[in-house]
Amino acid sequence: MSATSNLGPVVTLVAAALVGAGLLTANVLTDPVRTRAETPVAAAAATATPAAATTSTAAATTSAATTSAAPTTAPTAVPTTAAYAAAYLSPAVYVGRDATRRISVAVAVRDGKVAAYVCDGKSLESWLTGTAAGATATLAASTDRLTTEVTNRGLHVTGTVHGRPVDVTAALASAPAGLYRLDTNGTTVGWIVQPDGTQVGLRSRAGVVAPAPVLVPGQAVTLDGRPAYPQEVSGDDRF
């Protein structure tokens, strides 16, 4: 057999190998499934890392913005006992009625001293005095007792007068509203003038009471046929 005849099968095998290699390369390049499956993990990681960094930065920025934008709320001021006690120092008068509008109360304060008048305009009346301690004051007259406590609405007055309960919130009054008293020739007259101009009072002489004459603050009243001038009651007055 010649050399040329021996080369024939070898050439055929080489050609077949080259064709097979070409087909394998073509399959790898053209098969999209395999191309996707063989995407390097490093490339995916490189793509995800910037996104994570962006999310972290955005979260930090949002947190900082929220912290800086958070409103600062000032603590609510709570009145102290000293602030309440100051209500008894300056000269002032507080007036009010109970829920039934049958009993009126007026309380005058000055320099920590307190004077009060309770009256229903018919038969009940009492003049009481006392001193303040902190936000409260205790007043007494015989067996009558009152306690006044400073609130944001004025003075809350509670106690008993002639056995009857008293519960009144008295508000700060401006003249001519207030508390007035007249002592003359053994007769005592008291008046409580409310901010709306209404008034209540009694005249007392030797334990006998009667309605007080109408009062016009600053003017004389006629008592037993003679003119007399009532005075505004101060917290340091004593009866």
Task: Please characterize this protein's 3D structure.
The protein has about 240 residues and is α+β, with helices and mostly antiparallel strands. The protein has two domains: about 60 residues, no CATH class; about 150 residues. The strands form three sheets. The chain has an eight-stranded antiparallel beta barrel with strand order 1-2-3-4-5-6-7-8. A hairpin with a 2-residue loop joins β7 and β8. The longest helix is centred in the N-terminal third of the chain and has 29 residues. It is globular and about 50 Å long. The termini are far apart.
Write a short abstract of this structure.
The chain has 239 residues and is of the alpha+beta class. It has 4 helices and 15 strands. The radius of gyration is 49 Å and the shape is globular.
What's the helix and strand layout?
Elements: H1 3-30, H2 32-37, H3 41-69, H4 81-85, E1 92-97, E2 104-110, E3 113-119, E4 125-133, E5 136-141, E6 144-151, E7 154-161, E8 164-172, E9 178-184, E10 187-193, E11 199-205, E12 208-211, E13 221-223, E14 226-228, E15 231-232
Antiparallel strand pairs: 1-2, 1-8, 2-3, 3-4, 4-5, 5-6, 6-7, 7-8, 9-10, 9-15, 10-11, 11-12, 13-14
Residue stretches low in confidence (pLDDT < 50, at least 5 long) are 1-78
Count of all domains: 2
Structural class: alpha+beta
Tally the beta strands: 15
Q: Given the C-alpha coordinates, what overall shape results?
A: globular
- Beta-strand portion reads 35-45%
- What is the terminal separation in angstroms? 158 Å
Helix count, DSSP H or I runs of 4 or more residues: 4
Report Rg.
49 Å
